[in-house]
Amino acid sequence: MWLEGDRDMKLGMHIVETSWRGGPARLAGLLAEIVGAAEDAGFDLISVADHVWVHPIIGGPLKNHLEAYTALSYIAAHTRRARLLALATAASYRPPGLLAKMVTTLDVLSGGRAMLGIGSGDYPEEASGLGLPFPAQAGDRFDLLEETVQACLAMWEGERGSEQPFEGRHVRLERPLNLPQSLSRPHPPVLIAGSGEKRTLPLVARYADACNIRPSPEIPRQLELLRRLCEEAGRDYDAIEKTAPFAFDVGEDGSKIDELIGRLRWLSGMGVETVFGWVVGVDSIRPLEIMAREVIPAAAELSPAA
Q1: In 10 A of CB 221, how many CB atoms?
Q2: What is the pLDDT of residues 219-238, one digit of tens each?
């Protein structure tokens, strides 16, 4: 597993949008304050939604949101310990060689704390709005996702990348040279996001160090499928971190603490080991203080079901 420690539940703070108090003029200072407070609170990971528009499920495109990898580099400079990733990069948005270089740069500048969080993409409106590539057919997006992961792994081979060109149907790297090489070895951990049983989970079984599946009663069945897929692929199921997205809402006065801990217990009981949560009201800092005092210690007592 790519997170140190026993099999207790880990929590990540997920930044889904940045329409915070004070507006853009205060955003840099407030972001530094938030990520510093999150790390001090005991969050093991900090992730940023890799969207150029805020997703409709969070409120839509007229909210503020920063570009993920630029923001992660800034976050790296204001943290010391937490793992850092985009959750999750649409494979089509960046050429694979450039994406591997960006994650490598984040890894080097953060002292080996970067991960590659990647998926097939789910927001065609933002892609067409800003002219980003987004294959119309889901099958093509998943083929591109697989080749992108393969190409990134080729970039992370050995001391300077693969000696052989990478040639796929969608991706071609004539020379996968990568210097400086990542500090994380053999490569930055790869998280493949999504719950799809026909394409996503098989890709997790073949390539990923972590999955990120929707929080639903289907999790035990999906993880059992992942176990079988890992056996077929010759991978160690237990070495794959099982993660899920969620919302961390403790209430303005902490009135929802017990409810949140109960939901974390529910996820843990289904086998989820790490939860990435959007902290409601995070720009006031107080929810992070409440989580540090009440929620994170309780989560550390949870042992995810095998």
Answers
A1: 12
A2: 999 999 999 999 999 999 99
